[in-house]
Amino acid sequence: MPLESIVDPTITIKPSVRLIDFILNNVKDINDAPGGITFLCKSKKSKKEKIANAMLKIEDLSWLNKYLKKYRKSATKMIYLHELFDDSNVLLPMPKETPRNPELEARIQKLRAQQNAREYQTMTKSIDSMRKFLPEDSIAYQMKQINKQLIAVAQFIFSVIAGFAFGFIGVELIIGNLDFGFRLLLGIICALIVALAEIYFLAMKLNENDFDTSKSIKSHQD
């Protein structure tokens, strides 16, 4: 699925139990502490669920690392940030997924199914006597398909020529004498309109042919 840009790039940390206990029991001076540390220190008397759901950020860990440097100068036991950070979970920002258009997804699934059907037919027809000689493999079928394509192209060309002739000659016969440049412009406009319409119908016809082909492949597989 397509992904949107990340709105909030903030990295959050789910602190481990050991890290939370150290902050609650050993951090005293929180005058310049960031929000996450301050929240934990002020939540000593709160419910355990509230403390367990606390989240820290990078600036909280940076401040805590500086605090530990001062703490180790007077402490009897050396404690380092990486030791407290064990078992903590780092939550990275995730982009939001944009759902695909249902019509586009349906079209993709249909094309994928047709492609899989063709590949399956190609792999199995050499070992299955029922599929070894399909109509699609005969010369007559191939010639029929070529004739269909040639007829469609010829129909397109003749339709465009007829549209140009109507704009170039037909309009003059209906209205009367017209300037040559104006007649040429009318012919080109009519030809373009006919060409666009023919391209649309040609695309629809090719789509129907693909659908018929997939149906025939499926029937042979069955």
Automatic annotation (TrEMBL):
Q: How does it sit in the membrane?
A: Multi-pass membrane protein
**Where, by residue number, does the polypeptide cross the bilayer?**
150-175, 181-203
Compartments reported by the entry: Endoplasmic reticulum membrane
- Which biological process annotations from GO are given for this protein? vacuolar proton-transporting V-type ATPase complex assembly
Q: Does the keyword Transmembrane apply?
A: yes
Principal place of residence: endoplasmic reticulum
What this protein is called in its record is: Transmembrane protein 199
